[in-house]
Design a protein that fits this description.
The structure is a single chain. Helix content is 14%, strand content 32%. By secondary structure, the chain is of the alpha+beta class. The N terminus is likely disordered.
Length: 102
């Protein structure tokens, strides 16, 4: 049932907490229609380089033990690099990536 799966994936994302200075990002969906209304095939469109922060780690400790909290918070919109990050599959969610905050 699609509604049950959707609610399960939301609770899984809430429970998923990155470690250190890592952030979990959900990539924005591909654009399938241009501003002028032309529909593009999904195979020919490239992945968008923007996303939304879903979860943030507590931060990273330096050699003195001081915790440096990340500057990002859940819900922030970010630009993503073309390369890097670890693709993660959580329930039925697609395009979830784990990046370092720095």
């Amino acid at each position: 049932h699609p509604t049950t799966t959707m609610f399960r994936s939301r609770t899984l994302l809430r429970k998923l907490a990155p470690l250190g200075d890592r952030v979990l990002v959900k990539r924005a969906p591909k654009e399938v229609q241009t501003a002028s209304g032309i529909y593009l095939p999904t195979d020919s469109t490239k992945d968008p380089n923007e996303g939304e922060i879903v979860a943030v780690g507590p931060g990273e400790r330096d050699v003195t033990g001081t915790l440096h909290a990340p500057n990002l918070k859940e819900g922030d919109k970010v630009l993503l690099p073309d390369y890097g990050g670890i693709k993660i599959k959580v329930a039925d969610e697609d395009d979830m990536y784990l990046f370092r905050e720095s």
